[in-house]
Amino acid sequence: MTREDTYKHKGLRHQMVETLRGKGISDEAVLKAMDTVPRHWFIGSALDAYAYEDRALKIDCEQTISRPSTVAAQSQLLDFRPGMRVLEIGTGSGYQTAVLCAMGAKVFTIERQKGLFEQTRKLLRETGYRAQCFLGDGYQGLAGSYDRIIVTCGAPEIPETLMQQLKVGGIMVIPLGEGEQEMLRITKQGESREEWHVEHCGTYSFVPMLDGKQMR
Ligand code: SAH
Q1: Could you give the C-alpha distances from 36 to 5, 27, 155, in angstroms and in order?
Q2: Measured between alpha carbons, how far is 166 from 135 in angstroms, rounded to an integer?
Q3: pLDDT tens column, 58-72
Q4: Nearest of 31, 30, 40, 32 to residue 8 by alpha carbon
Q5: 154-186 residue pLDDT tens
Q6: Which of 46, 52, 108, 163 has its CA 20 to 30 A from that of 9?
Q7: 67 alpha carbon – ligand 1 mean position (Å)
Q8: Hey, whose CA ends up nearest to atom 13 of ligand 1?
Q9: Record: fold of 7-214
């Protein structure tokens, strides 16, 4: 399937990036990636016209694609360099995944809903974003160790397993709380909890992080 990226889309995308600058996003690597990735490919065509507004949109399986300013904020907080291993929990539409890929991360991403996982894995493949997609429960993470972990659903608590899979010196960005969440940036300075440096980075509203896989 060919996907279009017209001058109109590109123009709207430039405007979106300027809006993000205005909202305090200053990491040029993030802004450049978001100027490049066609967000409209990651939402249903019925919503195409809204693709470059700073708002969350409904995608399949009753999930949402995070608003551009949230994707930008989380990507900026991750503070990673190209080539780093980044684990994402909550693939959803794949837009955040694509932005991380465009920034040069080696991305591993987990989605718990089978339908969404299959659809997004196919989309990322077809559009050339080379993330490794997994169907699974983000609470279990993925065997291996990661430089960065980004959680894109609201977690009721900090998942221990994920903290174990984070390298020492690594950073996890995670919205914590039920209903509304507080965005935390946790720098793992050592293995014990006392060595986790936690920064509070604002209030957000995400869909909840749920247990287990959903096989449809
Ligand atoms: N990064 C996504 C955000 C999608 S919304 C985007 O840019 O579109 C969050 C996603 O997290 C949903 O698709 C939801 O199904 C998924 N999710 C919720 N709990 C999860 C879990 N335990 N493991 C993996 N994915 C989960």
Answers
A1: 10, 15, 30
A2: 20
A3: 888 788 899 999 999
A4: 40
A5: 999 999 999 999 999 999 999 999 989 999 999
A6: 108
A7: 14
A8: 92
A9: Rossmann fold (3.40.50)
